[in-house]
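User: Run a structure prediction on this.
Assistant: Running it now.
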Amino acid sequence: MANFENKSIGVFIDGGYFAKVNEALERQMKMSVNIKALFRFIPELIGQQDDMDSKKLFITESHYYRGRYRVNDAQNKHLLFSERLFEDSLIENDIIIHYKHLREVHGSHGPTVIEKGIDTWFALDTYEMTLYRDFDYVVLISGDADHEMLAKKLKALKTHVILLTWDPADTGSTSRLLSEEACTHIELKKLTDKDPSLIKRLCNQL
């Protein structure tokens, strides 16, 4: 194995996408993603992909973006405890949290939840931080086609863009355009299909 200098990894999490992964895992297996285990696994994955010693790969910064209900709405929807519990896991893993308030618009077909500006904020921050932090790798945990141009711009900075997805229900929900634009696309379901023990390693039992 070649001897490389230490490399930095920036991880950027689309919170809406991450929530859908957890919902699918809960429905199918009564499990949820163990963030600490996932973050330990990411350098291993990159090391395997690029024939590097994973001990020379470090997640130097990580960010999470999500829309969130105001406190009274969250209380009325019985979401406060679960939100705080999840936030604790983000904080324990030194993940910087970015929230914008959700809005509900009530129409003839019932309430519609509006999450405005999160994708743009995610993209602008990811690009800006990659520009100034000079990450060697950026890991995007998302499946949204809106991030296709972000991946393209990050590559222009000579950054290796890794799209990390998990589609437990095999719905094919990851954007093809985003997948094709990333330098590397790692779909965790393909890995867990080959090695079922990986699920227990990366997940908590509920």
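The radius of gyration is 17 Å.
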